[in-house]
């Protein structure tokens, strides 16, 4: 499952990334494999998505969130 598919309040554990270039940026922001992410808010039109990861809130575009694969 991709992070972009989660609903508000759902959580998941980062497994891997589908985009190498994007993965470097995401890992620099705390989205590391094994980290739990919680979807806190989704904008009215579905973009961006606010998640909680590593104890802080991070906003991602849906395109960016779709590159994060979660454990099922």
From TrEMBL:
<dbReference type="InterPro" id="IPR008988">
    <property type="entry name" value="Transcriptional_repressor_C"/>
</dbReference>
<dbReference type="InterPro" id="IPR038157">
    <property type="entry name" value="FeoA_core_dom"/>
</dbReference>
<keyword id="KW-0408">Iron</keyword>
<dbReference type="InterPro" id="IPR052713">
    <property type="entry name" value="FeoA"/>
</dbReference>
<dbReference type="GO" id="GO:0046914">
    <property type="term" value="F:transition metal ion binding"/>
</dbReference>
<dbReference type="InterPro" id="IPR007167">
    <property type="entry name" value="Fe-transptr_FeoA-like"/>
</dbReference>
<dbReference type="Pfam" id="PF04023">
    <property type="entry name" value="FeoA"/>
</dbReference>
<feature type="domain" description="Ferrous iron transporter FeoA-like">
    <location>
        <begin position="1"/>
        <end position="72"/>
    </location>
</feature>
<protein>
    <submittedName>
        <fullName>Ferrous iron transport protein A</fullName>
    </submittedName>
</protein>
């Amino acid at each position: 499952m991709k992070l972009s598919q989660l609903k508000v309040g759902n959580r998941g554990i980062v497994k891997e990334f589908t985009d190498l270039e994007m993965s470097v940026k995401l890992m620099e922001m705390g989205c590391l494999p094994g980290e739990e992410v919680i979807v806190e808010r989704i904008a009215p039109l579905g973009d961006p998505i606010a998640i909680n990861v590593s104890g802080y809130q991070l906003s991602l575009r849906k395109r960016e969130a779709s590159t994060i694969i979660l454990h099922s």
